[in-house]
Design brief:
The chain is an all-alpha fold. It has two helices and no strands. It has helices spanning 21-24, 28-39. The termini are far apart.
C-alpha cells in the first residue's frame, strides 16, 4: 500500500461502516491510523440498498 500512496488509485470495499472500524479492529489507535491514511485525498461512496449475493 505504501508504494501506491499518492501515486496510484486503489479501491477498497467493506461492509463495515467507517464508524465501526474501531470495534472491528479492537483498537481505536489502529482504526484511526488506517482510516487517516485511507481517507486522505479520497472519495467515500456509500451505497445503500438491499444486500444481494450470487450463488454459483
Amino acid at each position: 500500500m505504501d508504494s501506491y500512496y499518492e501515486r496510484k488509485s486503489t479501491i477498497i470495499t467493506t461492509n463495515v461502516p467507517l464508524s465501526s472500524w474501531e470495534t472491528a479492529l479492537y483498537s481505536t489507535a489502529t482504526a484511526e491510523a488506517i482510516l487517516d491514511r485511507l481517507v486522505y485525498h479520497s472519495y467515500v461512496i456509500k451505497i445503500k440498498g438491499k444486500l444481494t449475493s450470487v450463488d454459483f
